[in-house]
């Protein structure tokens, strides 16, 4: 599955407590040769590590270990390396498995817990916010859906639209002395009014950020005859045709998408800076953990690849090395960061994954407090 399938309901289901052991396996992958040749070897090594961890864990019965291994083997057999993106996540317990191929990298990890490791799914979903692209001219309008990783056509609510074709009228041309400008004709205005109406229907049913691609006169006329496109988050003044492909559009959108990413990162920084100035800020694992548990965190920002094993003592977190074996009483938490992210989402908190080292001065994660 990919990130488009990760609905809030499914995420909540994946985060639910399960009979121990719930196994999560993550690893980086490669889209193309020759780099992708190493992926199969990495996967075999991680599967072998997972089997060794299951066999060595005193909390796992022989029957449970065999059942999880069987599900893991089924998942591995089903992995299609031709569809590889930047990472692979396999989730398996005694009764099921899931395969996720994600458009952002993930570290090599094998985690045994009483719930699935979901931070990589959450990060991929957060970093791949879907948007729409309207490819426009006076003769056509095509709608695309996608993420920064790629686009695909979205035929719906009348899209793609093509303007009615009218034969040239020599008598009319003789009366006015010339052919009318493409974007000053009433036919073009009527066509773009139709585009505006259909776009309004799409955005009302499923609101998403909108990018516009077309010649400047076409984009200006669309704004003039309607309202739907005015809130567009990005505009690319580039001529398109009905045959312009999704791959061509995503290349043209590259600078606009990068600008939007930088703007989003800047907004997170500004919110954290303002919170720090107004004393509504928490930094570091223990402080943020406490704020999340008490429901005081409105935004949690965490470095993408920050992970930490901790011992929980009297409600506080003490970092320990990654080689510490999780205890049966649950006081050692192998991935407290994932647990913190899940708890934040459960309490309606916004979670943002930021660049590594961007929060180095705050213990790798920080929060904006509601109160």
Q: How big a fraction of the residues is strand?
A: 15-25%
Q: How much helical structure, as a percent, in the residues?
A: 25-40%
The tally of beta strands, per DSSP, is: 17
| Main beta-sheet strand count, sense and barrel state | 6 strands, mixed
What is the radius of gyration computed over CA atoms, rounded to a whole number of angstroms?
26 Å
By helix and strand content, what is the structural category? alpha+beta
Low-confidence stretches: 172-179
Overall, the morphology is: globular
Distance between the termini: 38 Å
Give the overall average pLDDT. Answer: 88
Write the layout of secondary structure elements.
Layout lengths: L7 H8 L6 E7 L8 H20 L5 H17 L8 E6 L4 E6 L6 E5 L5 H9 L3 E6 L3 E8 L2 E4 L7 E2 L7 H7 L9 H20 L4 E5 L1 H10 L8 E4 L8 H32 L3 E3 L1 H9 L3 E7 L5 E5 L2 E5 L11 E2 L2 H11 L3 E5 L10 E5 L2
Parallel strand pairs: 5-9, 9-10, 12-16
Antiparallel strand pairs: 1-2, 1-4, 2-3, 5-6, 6-7, 6-8, 11-17, 12-17, 13-14, 13-15
What would you say about this model in short?
The protein is an alpha+beta fold. It has helices at residues 8-15, 37-56, 62-78, 119-127, 170-176, 186-205, 216-225, 246-277, 285-293, 336-346, and strands at 22-28, 87-92, 97-102, 109-113, 131-136, 140-147, 150-153, 161-162, 210-214, 234-237, 281-283, 297-303, 309-313, 316-320, 332-333, 350-354, 365-369. Strands 5, 6, 7, 8, 9 and 10 form a 6-stranded mixed β-sheet that branches.
